[in-house]
Specification:
Layout lengths: L1 H10 L3 E6 L10 H18 L5 E11 L2 E5 L4 E2 L1
Parallel strand pairs: 1-2
Antiparallel strand pairs: 2-3, 2-4
Amino acid sequence: MMQHVGPDAEENRIDLTLENLASGQRIELDANRMTQVLLNLLVNAIRYTPEGGSVRVVLEDRRIGNKDFLKSLSPTLE
């Protein structure tokens, strides 16, 4: 997915990084929909980040109460 938005980030001199802290657990979801959501978030993050800025994507496991969730994307604009 990062390869799809990489050229736009490069063109605007935006540093695009991915930090994978997830354990690799599998979750059931609609892969096409999740791809669409994540791609939209990345495109918007790059579109609204000033030239020379950075977008950081963090993948990590999260536990809320007694349920495990995967926090899939946490873009940070700098």
